Amino acid sequence: MSRPDGSTARVEMLDRFSLRSRIGILAALVAALAVVLVSLAAFLTVRSNILATLDSNLFQRAVFAAQSELADPVELSRIPPEILGAGDIRIGLVAASGQARSAEGQASAPPIAGPELAVARGLEPSSVRTASIGSDPYRVVAVQAGPGRALVMAQRLDPTQQVLTRLALALPVVGGVGVLVAGLAGIAVARAGLRPVQRLTSATERVAATGDLRPIPVDGADELARLTISFNEMLGTLAASQEQQRRLVADAGHELRTPLTSMRTNLELLAAAGRPGAPTLPESDRAEILTDVHAQVEELSTLVGDLVELARDDTPLVVHEPVELTDVVSRALERVRRRAGEVEFDATLVPWTLMGDATALERAVLNLLDNAAKWSPPGGTVRVTMRPLDGWSLVLEVADQGPGIAEQDLPRVFDRFYRADQARTMPGSGLGLAIVRQVALRHSGAVWAGRAPGGGALLALRLPGRHPAHG
């Protein structure tokens, strides 16, 4: 039964048992119900068959006796009592008037009542019933033995009832053993079936206690095996995320250490120069130190901003706003031209619309342009080209006239904090191109690096979308 909040009501008593015990109990209950139904059906079937066989035999013997000399009262009285006693049988004749005679008088007379009189009077061809003489039960049949007479034969039911009693006692015993075996089998099956779940539980507890993210063995190809595979994939993803965070922290600490150390040294120099009795610091040196501190603050600000942006790497971005990529690239070009010095920008733009984050896209394009401007020589030209690949994707290419990217560095230029040997003396944190790749992935795009036709670096950003004219 469902609760108002949508959850399912539970039996609190069963919560005290483990899942394995609950499966065993359920198996035992199902087996018990099956045993009760089967035992009841078996008992009723056996009882019915035994009584039917007894009635059939009694009828055959009664019909045979009615057609023999026993239908004569005189001949009936001559039957030796030992014969009737050995078979626990009582035989009698009853007339339509109700007068009855038996083989040994009243001492061996069968029960006589309405059904037997009805047969004697011709109202019924035969009758069968169970009656008692004292405390002894008898099965009584009556058949016609001529006009106005009926032969009545009764046989004790004690042997038959003993058989039924033993059967009624044996069925519950056998059923109880079956229930016990079913419960044990249920527990055994549950133990074998839940072994992968137990391994998952142990692995989860191990991860929670030790942080050990080793995968667990997988056996079979059933649902639990697929669950184990999914759990291992989750562990792999978690391990990769931890390693990524560890590298980010380590690299960030390494990158922050240099400007912080330099800033502290400069500030200590300024503080020492301001102490009484200290040598006077020339104004030119003071201005140079302040300029250096100001540059280091800007470098730290840029680095912290990039780190904050990259910290959102695992946070999925819900893109739902139409963005005109041409406007984004134009704004980025305006910003980079103001600070690029003598570097020129030659842009070839085409209309392109996509669903995304305009701010993030502008920052990615600006990082590409800043990187190209940084590597281009004074008076050099950075070529910016928007080129549709098909009706649903476009490539933004940024090519500079710098020295280009070494072959061994091409696969790693978009990694976090990666800087080629020739770039270590250049300004920057090594995070700009990593942010470009992050933005591309968030928008279901891609990035790659290559060589420009003029020998410089070529960085490409592929994004999905459509041409506005194509609707």
Description of the molecule:
The chain is α+β, with helices and mostly antiparallel strands and 471 residues long. The protein is 51% helix and 17% strand. The protein has helices at 19-66, 73-77, 81-86, 114-120, 158-193, 195-210, 223-273, 283-310, 325-337, 358-375, 432-442, and strands spanning 89-95, 100-106, 126-133, 136-144, 149-156, 321-324, 344-348, 353-356, 381-388, 393-399, 446-451, 457-464. Strands 2-1-5-4-3 form a 5-stranded antiparallel β-sheet. Strands 7-9-10-12-11 form a 5-stranded mixed β-sheet, covered by helices on one side. Helix 9 packs across helix 10 (358-375). The protein is rod-shaped and about 155 Å long. The mean pLDDT is 78.
Key descriptive features of the protein:
Beta-Lactamase; five-stranded mixed beta sheet; alpha+beta; 11 helices; Helix Hairpins; rod-shaped; Heat Shock Protein 90; 471 residues
Strand content: 15-25%
The ordered H/E elements are HHHEEHEEEHHHHEHEEHEEHEE
Q: State the secondary-structure class.
A: alpha+beta
Q: Roughly what is the average pLDDT, rounded to an integer?
A: 78
Q: Could you say what the CATH topology of the largest domain is called?
A: Beta-Lactamase
- Poorly predicted regions: none
Largest sheet: 5 strands, antiparallel
Strand element count: 12
Q: What is the count of distinct domains? A: 3
Which CATH class of the largest domain applies here?
Answer: Alpha Beta
> What's the CATH architecture name of the largest domain?
2-Layer Sandwich
Q: What distance lies between the first and last C-alpha atoms, to the nearest angstrom? A: 51 Å
- Using only C-alpha atoms, the radius of gyration works out to 51 Å
